Amino acid sequence: MKFYIISMLLAFIQASVMTGLFVSNLYVPDLVLLYLFLHTSKQEKVDVKKPLISGLYLDLMYDTFGWNISGKLLVSLLLEIFKSRWEFATRLSLMIFYSFVALLEHLFRYILFRLKYYYPFDLRTFSLGFFLELFLLYLLTLFIIKKNAQA
Amino acid sequence: MTHIERSQQDMSKKRWIVYLLLILLNISLYFSNISSSKYFSFLFDILYSILMPVIELKTHLANTVSDSLNRYIYLVHVEKTNRELSKQLQELYLYKSQLRTCETSLKNLSELVGVQAQNYIKDIVFAGIVGYDPSGMDTFVLIDKGKDQGMEEGFVVFFKDKFVGIVDKVFGSSSRVRTVYSKDLTVSSTTAATGKSYIYKGGWRYGQLLYVNLEDPVEKGDLVLLRDNKKIIPAFIIGTVLKSEQRNDQFFKRVVILPSVDIRKLEYVVVIKAKL
Q: How many whole angstroms separate alpha carbon A38 and alpha carbon B94?
């Protein structure tokens, strides 16, 4: 339940504050994806409801039914495939894997969007959003490590 | 491989297939615009009517953040421009002081020699532009100063160091300025290279310099300046020579001028209360 409430709040912040800052929802740092990734990477098996619901929150906010859900499901599928073969032993490996899947997810969503509508791609804004997302992941992993050490 | 491992692999494969099917389903939902389809739109209408306060709050917040960010960027830009402008203003103050010294020296000198010193422009009016030529050829602009501000026909209009035109009609609280793009504008002019007197005739897109002798060294890129025989009005830039060519005429060259001022970028102009 905690996951659904936090992801709902994050979806709201992402759709309001972050979209206001980054103008287009194509370049916004995906806080929901970040949280979903951190949450599900700790679990053995990814619960399919989690990417579905967290993506649904964003789709309801943006009125793009199916767009965010498919992106989140893609990341969960990749995460499950990778986790069945490898382990994220260090923070660096986790960050490398996240940057790979997040880039893939953003690209996937951008292609879907571009097939339906036209919007110019601004590499600078996209990079800014993406690196901010990675920086947030770095901060959160620091926090998680500290919390685990205390435990 | 044990039976348990094999069954685990089958399970995970099944899950991957479920994932793939869900992804494909969501992609098709996205492309089919399910929220506005006639069979399901009522469901989304109900959902959105419940969520409306949240959506409204989200939109309001996004707009507020976006506006604040734009305002911040704008203010930073304004601050930068202000700093640049204050530097330029400081330079202008220096020139003004130097000019004042020159004026005093000239006065003393003219008293000694017994020649009357020239008059300098002191009366200028800042006027906002309220209308442009609807034909798109920029032949005139309307300014917001008229008889009420003491405007008269023939007053010279400029912007920065560029000649804009001449006031050709004065109304109660506005005036019409005939610009350098108008065929009806002819003014005395000169070039920076020759210093000789010519006539500038306006035109769209290009004006012309009339009566340029074949032997006059008027070349492409030369500056064309306003010429006042009484030497009261400064030599504002009219334009630059775009083409200087010999035609069938046995006395004069054909000189095409590109006017320097961009009429549609002007927001205000300065009117000198003096005639050419």
A: 64
